[in-house]
Give the backbone structure.
Amino acid sequence: MFKKILVANRGEIAIRVMNAARELGIETYAVYHEVDKHSLHTISADYALEIVGDTPKQAYLDAAQIISLAIENECEAIHPGYGFLSENASFSKACKDAEIKFIGPNEYAIEVMGNKTAARELMQKAGVPIVPGTKERITDLDLAKEIANEIGYPILLKAAAGGGGKGMRKVEKESDFIDSYDAAQREARNAFGDDTIYMEKYIVNPKHIEIQVLADEHGNCIHLAERDCSIQRRHQKVIEEAPSTVLDEKLRAAMGKVAVDAAKACQYVNAGTIEFLLDKDKNFYFLEMNTRLQVEHPVSELITGVDLAKEQIKVAAGYPLPFEQEDIVISGHAIEARIYAEDPLNNFMPDIGTISYLRNPDGIGVRVDGGIERGDEVSINFDPMLAKLIVFGQDREEAIEKMDAALSSYKVVGSRTVIPFLKAVMQSDRFRNHYFDTGFIESDFDFKVLDEMKENDEEYVAAIAAFAYNKNKNKKKVTPVNPTPSDWKSKRLNNMREF
Amino acid sequence: MFKKILVANRGEIAIRVMNAARELGIETYAVYHEVDKHSLHTISADYALEIVGDTPKQAYLDAAQIISLAIENECEAIHPGYGFLSENASFSKACKDAEIKFIGPNEYAIEVMGNKTAARELMQKAGVPIVPGTKERITDLDLAKEIANEIGYPILLKAAAGGGGKGMRKVEKESDFIDSYDAAQREARNAFGDDTIYMEKYIVNPKHIEIQVLADEHGNCIHLAERDCSIQRRHQKVIEEAPSTVLDEKLRAAMGKVAVDAAKACQYVNAGTIEFLLDKDKNFYFLEMNTRLQVEHPVSELITGVDLAKEQIKVAAGYPLPFEQEDIVISGHAIEARIYAEDPLNNFMPDIGTISYLRNPDGIGVRVDGGIERGDEVSINFDPMLAKLIVFGQDREEAIEKMDAALSSYKVVGSRTVIPFLKAVMQSDRFRNHYFDTGFIESDFDFKVLDEMKENDEEYVAAIAAFAYNKNKNKKKVTPVNPTPSDWKSKRLNNMREF
Amino acid sequence: MNNIQEEIKLVSGDKTYSAAFDHTDTSKVFLDEKLYEFKVLKEYNDNVSVISVNNKVFTVKINQDDRDSIEILTTGFGYNYEIKTSTSSLLEQFVRQSGKGKNKVNGIVAPMPGMVVKVNCAVGDQILENDKLVIVEAMKMENALGSPLSGTVKKINAIEGKAVDKGTVLIEIE
Amino acid sequence: MNNIQEEIKLVSGDKTYSAAFDHTDTSKVFLDEKLYEFKVLKEYNDNVSVISVNNKVFTVKINQDDRDSIEILTTGFGYNYEIKTSTSSLLEQFVRQSGKGKNKVNGIVAPMPGMVVKVNCAVGDQILENDKLVIVEAMKMENALGSPLSGTVKKINAIEGKAVDKGTVLIEIE
């Protein structure tokens, strides 16, 4: 086993990986940019190495710098987490060239699965069902519009290098095609430095179902059942669960087999995920492969008992998988909710600020993978995900009750969060009766419920405001120590619902 | 189901119970004495009610006051947690008289099992094996010494009303009898207001094995396997695990059956624990029954999947148990370590102070049931247990690795804690090879290991001291704002190992 | 309620609450004539405290500035109140009558810091409410910002490729 | 090491470390001639900070008073150092030679606040090291406190049934 590994990431995933390493007796090295020196992942590591860059993002993406730090500190392996360098084929190769183990797949798998066009081709060859659409980069817009008409609207424009909803646009009708194409291309260029766009049929009311796979260097490849990640806003997942209520044993086995075939087709090693769209008739279509650990990996861990981050490290160290397909038994039900600093009453607009008070829920079956602590700032430099709350119950009903209760116990004061929204989802009939698809938030969720939740406490909160006014009244008569008004008001704007 | 319950306790157990209630959709009422108004259990509740008393302890023991608050606030049930009023038969009865459900057994079971002499008699009738000893209160010391000689030294003196090691003394030889008896009686009087002492054979090198039972109001009574709580200091548990490595299926079934018989014999309803001593020849002897939820209940929850606090509330609400004995399947391995603010290098002397920084470990299979947060004070008013760290692994080896890693991730700065000791136990061959009994800490643990652990970082820490000196040097030249020296030094004393 | 010292109004959107205080006891507040009793259970940095209101426990951040407005943040929600004392009410009435109401932003304001990706209008354009006039990228997402009102584009402060702070007026409309 | 400004000694029990500083750079410390580089990553209230030492991360509470002694608390352990500058070393040597060493407590000190349950000796008693002379109850446990030295009981300050503070000298022995 490795003695030291470097974790080339930040936030909750860096801490998650370091926890796994610590269990294996491995010393952990964090990397941090100056603005991140106080961050939880930095101060959670055994060792913390500063990386420099004009922006924090540049530093975390600086492959050469990170590799040379790993060499200097005798780290034998690098875990890339998700995002940043995790799906960068040349980084995987550079690690290999430097004789440092990249804890993830080889450059070929990243390369081929990272390119939507190449991935589609490879998957088609491997017998994996794919969504009808263009297989090559759109160059001729008139031709593209013709193909779109053939496939039939709505169609979906997607960045070849994309992921997580970035560079993605749904087009309802031909007249919107050009504008949407421009926007998708611009976003793709900014996000990935690659503005290749392709298109495919937009599957109406699909479920987002993904299969977790795990492969070792000895030719063993298994799947760890599915995750249902249909609850999304802006094409980004908010709530995930495992198992899915719409899969039966037969469909699970069928999708699992296809996922393993897909992984084998790209010579996959380590943990990866095959994402599918599942339509109402239980047809499933390959969406993409994420060649890394995913944000929502914990739900699979809880229903299978397999610690994916630990297995990742063990696989990278050359260990064979300690189980075969038939050893993977799923039991119970797990739900993950992402705690974003976003205002659900304002179109999920990110809400920056200081998290002046934070208290995570705890107890039986409650897990929080968090990236911040009390007093930390949520800045615009990084994604506004504060933590992931994951619960495990004996069945789905218990898991929902547990999530609802844990959300009530969660205290995050200082920025708006999606917590009330998540609670409302847990309490909604549609979610409870598992009648939801990827359009849930956009089309089916009743945001008025949130207004009602807010109004529920209004009377008490108004009384608190009056109490605070009365208590501070006398204080205000003395000259304020700091005569400049605080800036909280300028940070809060009204009428932002429609943007 | 109840709509509102009052939790007549504080600290981690109050929070644990409130979490369970919240999952059942019940509103929670905390009670707090003025000194506890900022405590985590107070601020975790939906509602917090002040109770008054000359000391916090008096307030928490004030049955009449607590019952009248429950009535006033329309709470339908009271959960007593552990300690305080939990094993007070007249409180159970007073609740019933006030038509408030006591979440625990009826007064008869508490009464009879709370009196060691009566309990022994009843158990003997029910066919439960008991340790040889006196069945009645010691009154004639000469006679007692005679009986002790018959049983054979070492013998154990125990308070009839006792529990948790209080009012307990081991006597090695006849000449120590009187002094030990005096001490036990004094301690019992102070702790329980009852100085009845009895004696029994001291079982050499026993394991402390206890069986969790759960009974409903409809005559169903099952057991949830055992916990091994042999790692104790001062007769108080520090580390507990489930299952025990020394029980096989047959012995588990035998002890489980005896435990269920014991519970039935006292007409037991709700969750309870039968404690046994298990000798090397696998003979087991009834020790006592704890007629309440125990500190170490989480390890049983993790290996059985049964949420004991939730089941307690459901049973009290009149629900039948949702499972039968054959539905209880144990899987995996769970270990609990109690995080005490005690100095293991100084005979586990409690170490009070402000917990200036606190960070709980997190991640897969890691659970913390905690009672404090960053900035809270550890006072002499209550037990010095800060939290319980409970881990679950697929097997014992993984659980130990996980505990070791979680202890490394734990940050508690401001008072000494048992964390290094707990780590040392996890790393000790004796514990890993499950070769330990209740004498482990006293006789078998090598405290030098802790000195070595301390010295491991000494070089770095000395450098930090030098760095701090150099950094503060210039500051010290200005007149200090607060000219009185800080009191930290007076709180620390050397040479306390032998006391 | 003989000790009532002062009455104020709290205005939140279209709701107004009347609050009265007992000058012998600051732990009591009468809101719309209902009694609320307060205990401050715990205080943290950054104006965060745990307060019980008629024994119900709230963990809140209380932002108060000198202009008699208070923001209460709970987990998830933010509540804003304007405080009107009898003096301030009179004053406001006067101001309103003189036609000098509170500054209302006529135009599109950056809802968060970000970078202007595209401006979809020119000065003089007739636009309708909800028309998407400018695209701002923040936290790696593009957000198309719509106009809060119909009218004419008066001034464009947003420059493509330039960063903007939260609260910047990007497009002025009249 | 041309910029060395000052050397001090840190004494902890029977160990002594020599520390030297680079006066151009406070982030560097030479301890027994080995270089340690420091970064303060985070600071909390109550003198708690996260510091990296040669990139190794420590979360510590640093208690320093004016008498040049420093206590470092980590999770679990407490480390105490006396700081000896060249001046203080000389001074101490002088004091020691004059026979006026540091106050060493001769007797039994309450290791924590509690209540005296029993006193097992009288003034004038001859006692041996480790003899249990007084019983103090704290946190519901009785603790029999042994004498740190052999000698004669000089004075008894402990009174049965009375509370004592941590650090109180219960029994004086000479």
